[in-house]
Amino acid sequence: xxxxxxxxxxxxxxxxxxxxxxxxxxxxxxxxxxxxxxxxxxxxxxxxxxxxxxxxxxxxxxxxxxxxxxxxxxxxxxxxxxxxxxxxxxxxxxxxxxxxxxxxxxxxxxxxxxxxxxxxxxxxxxxxxxxxxxxxxxxxxxxxxxxxxxxxxxxxxxxxxxxxxxxxxxxxxxxxxxxxxxxxxxx
Length: 187
What we know:
This protein is 21% helix and 23% strand. It has a single domain (37-180), classed as tt1808, chain A (Alpha-Beta Complex), CATH 3.90.1570. It is an alpha+beta fold. It has four helices and ten strands, in the order H-E-E-H-E-E-E-E-E-H-E-E-E-H. The mean pLDDT is 94. A hairpin with a 4-residue loop joins strand 8 and strand 9. The strands form three sheets. A six-stranded mixed β-sheet has the order 3-6-7-8-9-10, sandwiched between helices. Strands 1-2 form a two-stranded antiparallel sheet.
């Protein structure tokens, strides 16, 4: 017996589904819906440290965790979406609109053991193709950061290699410094 193929949804149908905002988030690409894996401790620590470090070093950009970005026929939820403050649409009350309908300026994904690298890379490439200035895929098992930027070949960074950061963010980081955040001294 042949298993039935999963139902292909349009992006409009996907966005109407009640489950997509459950944790962990659901993403949509090419008619296929996938759920991100539940973050584990290393993932959560890296995400927390990145959010704090980026926000501490920029007044132009903000770093947001798990923000749904829906654009160019896809709906992705980067682990960290870095967006220029002036790109965030506000309502009449001066509060941000709930739906972000563009690519982030910088999309950061932290690879989980349960997630296929090809899916993460595909999302990062989609972001870059549609206006994102920088993409990172952080691999905690390999202690590497794979960097994507428009009109540049992807670059793998390890050790004391300086990581590419968005212009306007005064943060300086190496791959080694990122993974040092995972070292926890026993109290």
